[in-house]
Design brief:
Low-confidence stretches: 1-13
Helix content: 40-55%
Distance between the termini: 36 Å
Number of domains: 1
CATH class: Alpha Beta
Number of strands: 8
CATH topology: Chemotaxis protein chec
Number of helices: 5
Mean pLDDT: 87
Length: 166
Amino acid sequence: MADHPKFGSSEVPQQAVIPPMYAEDSSVDDKGRLKLPAAFQRYLGAAAGAEFMATTNDLKTAIVYTSSDYLQYRNDVKMQLGPEKAEPLLVVMERFGGTSKLDGEGRLSLPGTLRQQLGLSGRQKVWLRFRNRRIEILRDEDYEQEFQAAKVSLAESLKLLKGTGL
């Protein structure tokens, strides 16, 4: 019963927003703003007014977290790796990280240090995908390289799946 508003109440049940389940291309403009495709806007827009954290953990891929998911990720890293082994990763994420809000045109500003590290300059094509409660932003050439590698091993993966009955 807790999932339904009380009779006569003005409460409106919140409908879960499903994250995008596919990769989509986009671009970073001259001012370092990432234009989010509609499905990504809907997903982030569900956290209306919220701040987002944009950073990297591998010095190659930009990552956008909701603030709560970023804090959870930091805690998970510390728990899994221990404080000493987690420290280098957290330092990198802090160095290139910054907060941003979704503007009225569906854009997020990426920190200058992050854009410089990843080579994201004006009007550059990027690919977005949703994985592990975060949006990953890959440069076009990195995503293409990943795609080509996936094509090479696709037949083997499909064969394994077929063996499981899927």
